[in-house]
Prior knowledge:
By secondary structure, the chain is an alpha+beta fold. The protein contains two helices and five strands, in the order βαβαβββ. The longest helix is centred in the middle third of the chain and has 11 residues, at about 25-35. The relative contact order is 0.26.
Amino acid sequence: MAILRLRGPLKRLAGDTPDHPLEGATVGDLLRALEHAYPAVDGWILDERGMVRRHINVFVNGELGGQDTPVEADDRVDVLPAISGG
């Protein structure tokens, strides 16, 4: 199982647990599995079309990834909301 790690407000929506072992072949599969396991996350990471939202950054083993990025059983996937302000 890959480990999906959430930060900031996303972590609170998923039971205040940062690390989630999930099954899936791609980042998109992992994110859909996360939404299924934690309905409060629904709509915060994936939009209504099932695509990763613009303000969400996904890294696979420290490298910028996307929805179709493949993941292996021992990969670490970090999901970070973009930080902005003025």
